Amino acid sequence: DTAVLAMQAGALDYILKPFSLNIARPVIARALDLLQLRREVAALQAAERRRAEELAAAYADLESFSYSVSHDLRAPLLFVKDFALRLKEDFGGQLGEEGRRIAQLVYDGSVSMDRMIVGLLAFSRSTRQPLELLPVDMESIVRPLIAEARAVYEGPEPRIDVEPLPRALADSTVIRHVWSNLIGNALKFSSRQSEPRVRISARLEQGGRAGEGRAVYTVEDNGVGFDSRHADKLFGVFKRLHSVDEFPGTGVGLAIAHRIVTRHGGRIWAESSPGQGARFHFTLPAVPEERRQQAVR
Questions:
Q1: How far, in Å, CA of 117 to CA of 78, rounded?
Q2: Residue 12 to residue 97: CA distance in whole angstroms
Q3: With a threshold of 0.90, does the pTM exceed it?
Q4: Angle between helices 74-128 and 21-67 (to 10 degrees)
């Protein structure tokens, strides 16, 4: 009864009279430790509030920067692109061969920069868009994206095999970008093979608690591949392992895919060897077993 009354009064530790110094000493030590812990918790909470305020300010700056890039910086770039094209088409005869070459370089450079700006804006949006995690049928997303990728694909007819893909908890809108990028890259980097092949597969891995786990998805191709020692560079903004002359692109797609997968609580990584194709894997939270059973019923 005394212990209950003491704790109700806020005393997490106490001693009863009469007491000796040997009994009081550890009680006082625990009280001092608790006081120090409370001070540290208060300091951490204050630091967390400051970090939250700094983060809110950073997001506001990012919004302002995105608006500036999309309007103030992109507008004059589009003028350069349009006038370079008009210069070449309307006055190409007066410019001569060298003048037309320079006008084309200006046009190509402005188009490339505009694509990079669009990629940066897409990367910025991928970090701010709220996620709605629901069970997603991955096959219903992957198969239409394969059809879209085939429509713009230039190269020998590819063979694309799709194995059964388990559902996962994801935002169906943004996870499309991950699949679109990986499928498009697989087709692009295998397009120089006489028989391009792409294989899309998945497996389920169980987690620590019953019913929990993760879905591991893989997109594999037989393309040019890359040195695995540089695999981490693939997921940085504007990081490329092949030149634009070899394979077109801005170097932003995989960075966006990495950010999206990370925000889902998963991870993405790549395995490859030069000339041996590439395998890209990413994980997402698996649909709990009871929800999978309900879906079957």
A1: 11
A2: 88
A3: no
A4: 150
